[in-house]
């Protein structure tokens, strides 16, 4: 079977295991599916994230184990070239939100997020890419090439009930919630107030599509924090040889989640070309959006781009990961002031939890004098990129949020900070609770001690 992703990492899986149940067709992809050993951790509802769809439906068919069974059936039916367009497989994958929890919490580390990407790519090959997926997956191109038009269209749609209803009818985008609007101006690096030599060295800030076009203030705050900590900050830019030098770099995450693997590979190649010199220099590269940065550290391996991917992954950090590492290993001490705020409520993005980043988040928040907070035990927020924008998934999206996230946000003190690093998470919180959540970079920026004034 031709695959769109590189599954060679699973080449030795199943050797010597008579009970692995590897399907008859599918090669290494089939082995990736067959790692499930039926522990049924995906059908638990205690602590953890997995499995968001099972948690809200209570139906086994919406668990990771059932999805594995559906894929095994499709791959065992080698005579049917249209197996990936089977409605039964569509039903099994319908509520998967690509949270990555199964890779972390399942004892067998089933990577259903990547399995889903391959499934969508296979399905697109048979029936074509639906226009809604082209719209959501193409956000990097829309914002990079037609930003003003996109902002105008979204603002018009959000303010017109008729247009939002027409959009739901034509392309299946729910009329029951607003679409995120691009900021009035995209991110532009402001000149620092004073020249900084970067006593602690140079770092590169990877400003993802969402921070660049929708929340530029998050990137601006991150620059302030890093410079205050003593780093010289350089913004990641496309390579000089890039065919689109004016379009910001993108991790390709939106293309992966919508199964447009060729597009994702193109974005990944741009990233590798841009960072080739930085890989050799081992310069730290810092990201702000969990799903974007962690996609570069994880899914890039599946795109068959060579050994540079592994070297790049060792240099990629979320902001709080980098700060915590520098504190632990290189003596970083941020000069922070008390904020005099009620106890904060912190929600971790699914990928932050899957990659163990919440420990760093907790550590960094603990540096703010007198700052107290609770990390809410939540599953997926339910937004999950474009999932919560899809008309048929709106109700499920809100049920996921109501399990614990939205009640915790509503119960927080009126002026308590709500912290959520995920772009989609923040929009779900605002839509469901009427309250705005903030990225940790903004909170740290607010807590920075003013730089001492030079004596005249």
UniProtKB/TrEMBL annotation:
It comes from the Bacteria. Residues 85-115 form the 4Fe-4S ferredoxin-type domain. One of its GO terms (molecular function) is iron-sulfur cluster binding. It holds the Pfam family Fer4_8. Coiled coil: none annotated. Keywords: Iron, Iron-sulfur, Metal-binding. This is Ferredoxin. It comes from Methylosinus sporium.
